[in-house]
Design goal:
The protein folds into 2 domains: 61 residues, no CATH class; 110 residues, OB fold (Dihydrolipoamide Acetyltransferase, E2P). Helices cover 18% and strands 40% of the residues. It is built from 4 helices and 12 strands. By secondary structure, the protein is an alpha+beta fold. A hairpin with a 5-residue loop joins strand 11 and strand 12.
Length: 199
């Protein structure tokens, strides 16, 4: 069954009320969704499934803040978390000709080569930023999703206003480096901004 957006919002609110007020402590309710925002907004215990396999179980906030694997990071974010192949050298994170300072929470990451994760909401347009090329610009409600590329790196950033961009436009962006994640080469969370690690 496919419900329109407004009706889905109303149902979410109704479910929240039922979960918080209308159930006894012994009650178990399973709500299934493919929408990560929906799962997080209900703010209960979340089971992340992919191809029939349980990838992570925990409170919604814990899964959002500390996704156990790259796959969980992709599934539990909308748009999916950006993943970039990076390396660490001389207290710098490097990828595709970009160098940024290593934030404190990544100082203990042992692997020099790792997967760098950053959410679309933690990337912003900046006149003093790094140049990327626009592949696609999507208007989604009151925000603009920009699909960008630089060499082999492809990312999505979300801008909290409606803006017009053309394919192949050049834009400059900066990363909120204190919000980045590190996943090892096996895709396991090595460090998060919230202190999480599974290695």
């Amino acid at each position: 069954m496919n419900l329109d957006y407004k009706l889905r919002e109303q149902l979410r609110e109704e479910f929240k009320n039922i979960f918080s007020q209308g159930l006894s402590e012994e009650s178990i309710v399973i709500f299934s969704t493919t929408d990560p925002r929906e799962a997080m907004e209900l703010n209960g215990e979340v089971i992340v499934l992919d191809e029939g396999k349980v990838l992570q179980v925990g409170p919604a906030r814990e899964i959002f803040e500390n996704p156990k694997t790259l796959k969980v990071a992709e599934i539990s974010n909308d748009p999916p978390m950006n993943i970039l192949q990076a390396n660490m050298d001389s207290n710098k994170i490097k990828f595709e000709g970009i160098e940024v300072e290593v934030p404190n929470h990544l100082n203990n990451v042992k692997d020099k080569n790792f997967n760098l994760g950053i959410r679309a909401s933690n990337i912003e347009l900046s006149d003093n930023g790094f140049e990327f090329e626009v592949e696609l610009a999507e208007i989604s409600g009151s925000e603009t999703l920009l699909h960008l590329k630089r060499g082999n790196a492809k990312i999505i950033t979300s801008i909290e206003e409606v803006m017009n961009f053309n394919i192949n436009d050049k834009v400059k962006i900066n990363f909120d480096i204190d919000k980045v994640y590190a996943f090892n080469e096996n895709g396991i969370l090595a460090s998060s901004p919230f202190g999480g690690s599974y290695v």
